[in-house]
Amino acid sequence: MTTNTLLTHIHQKVPLTEADNSLILPYFTPKLLRRRQYLLQEGAICTHLSFVAKGLVKAFNIDEKGIEHISLFGSEGWWISDFGSFVNAVPGMLNIDAIEDTELLMISRENYEELLQKIPKMERYFRILYQNSLVTKDKRLISSITDSAEEKYLGFANNFPQIVQRLPQNLIASYLGLAPETISRIRKRQAK
Fold it and tell me: Which regions of the chain are under pLDDT 50?
């Protein structure tokens, strides 16, 4: 299990010393997920934040009709969790499972709190992540209300070129709130 992806990601946001690096890594536990294996199921309490070192996961919920609604994809360099459940220690609203075989680095709530106290730079790192996450969620909400189906798809493809080719169109459609046939038509128009 590689830890280089995590350290590289942290270094892109905050400067760390070699001593910081060696202090950070023991707080994380590696976990392997096989394709279609759950990391978290709705109703369970999310006890870890998970960093995707390699692979691809999705966070979703299922409505009363059994339809899956994807709220987030996580690929290399992304964090994934049911954050409300993690922070408040309450049953989660999300399911998280692997789209591909995935390598995660996980940090428990206790280790997270201790890490933030022992290495203040990590508090800044997570604050930057949370700020970026809020901006991204705002943009996604506005796009879902105002953009056409084609604008939604093109925005997704432009913002996430590293994963758009790794995802089947039904998963992209679920994430964008569109029918898979709509994605197919948009792709055909773009190919012309």
Answer: none
